Amino acid sequence: MAEPTLADRLGGLREAVEVAEGRLAVPEVGRARTLLAKAGARQALGEATVVALAGATGSGKSTLFNALSGAEVSTPGVRRPTTGVAHATVWGPAQDPLLDWLEVPRRHRHDTDPALDGLVLLDLPDHDSVRLEHRLEVDRLVELVDVLVWVLDPEKYADAAVHDRYLRPLAGHAGTLLVVLNQADRLPPADLAACRADLRGLLDAEGLADAALLTLSGRTGEGLPELLALLGRRVAERRAATQRLTADVRGVARSLQVHCGPGTRTATDDAGLTRALAAAAGVPAITAAVERSTVKAGTAATGWPVVRWLGKLRPDPLRRLHLGTGGRSSLPEVGSVQEAGVATAVRRARDAAGEGLPLAWTDDLRATSEVHADRLADRLDRAVSGTDLGSDRTPLWQRGVGALQWAVTAAALVGVLWLLGLVVLGWLQLDDLVPLPRVEGLPVPTLLLVGGLLAGLLLAVLARPFIGLRARRRARRARRRLEEAVAGVARAEVLDPLAGTATAHARFCAAVTRAAA
């Protein structure tokens, strides 16, 4: 499999940063963002090779810089009066835009060696300077140059300050690092060989086995041709900037890999979450109101017409909830038990979504669930208020029973009026003039009155079980629709955001892996 190009790596790192934006509050993402800005600027400034000489006070770094530059560009000395800015020598065409980007004001042109055309050599301030601004300038430029030549001297080549702060962190940049043991003329050959062997062992132990190690003397010129030849090859390849950026991208991407985990997401209890949210949204109260409202309407439609007006004195249980009015409903406030149930269900969903994720991503899951939980109550209220609870039209059979009720009521009314008429005729002593029809010996007016009343009562009693059956069936349909609406809110406000974080983690890890390969 071919190694990814720098463009592929930068694309992976850029995608990882975009995915992490607003999700991961970790310093590694900030470093990746800074590196992307640096890479874009450096690639736009051409293929010149920027080489920096870095070292401690008294290491002979400035003497070496002058020897390479062929002129007294930088003032050498154990306590030289530097200003904390770097010096530059440029071979070939001027590189002013590049040096402006590097913020190196002191510049020298060298036109006598065409083999090094395109080389920009920097002499950095001493990394161990007593001036803080000098040390900060070293740290800044060490991050920007293409090739770093670390100049060590026989006395302080094993100094922990330089190894711990600079060399060991560059383990992934061995191909862009040269180590020079300067002032070789100060040691006898045997001591120099021992010193070099010891330094080589230190570098190998720090992961810098691929870093070239040269021994030379900037004062006498010993070993200088080898260093110039090595720099000439780097310049001729025109790949130093690409190699440095590649090493930087791989280093930053590998630091981001600590925020990648297996992400073995377990199945969430969607039904449990829906039940908890439904309880908090008042679905049981609405369902009960639907059932009572249906019973009330059915009783009114099939009851005795004379007493139906009594039912109107009681408000409709469903209308009292003010559902579908466009504003907030009048559902009861959520109790502590329901709130605890919702919190538990959301936490379980969050834990399931975060199974196997690193801490930074579980923190994002927690923040995501908290943000969406703040608007959960309003979304639930709007969802249940806007749910179609089913038709409340009076069924045909209830209309038929209602018509029969009016018929038997009319019969009873006829019986009442007939009997009143007989009373009036009896008072006028005219009752003998009007024959009273009988059925099986019972007067017809009495039969009409008693029969009408009993028939009305019987119709109401017989209709009640069917009314209850319809009410329960309508309540079940309403519950299903309400739970579907609540499940939609659960998906939109809890499950989808949590799943989005898990998906973002997978994208982030794939992008980081591509950048770090």
TrEMBL record:
Residue ranges occupied by any G domain in the UniProt entry: 51-161
Keyword terms of this UniProt record: Membrane, Transmembrane, Transmembrane helix
InterPro entries attached to this UniProt entry: GTP-bd, GTPase_Era-like, P-loop_NTPase
Transmembrane intervals: 403-427, 447-467
PANTHER family noted in UniProt: GTPASE ERA, GTPASE ERA, MITOCHONDRIAL
Descriptive protein name: GTPase
Organism of derivation: Klenkia terrae
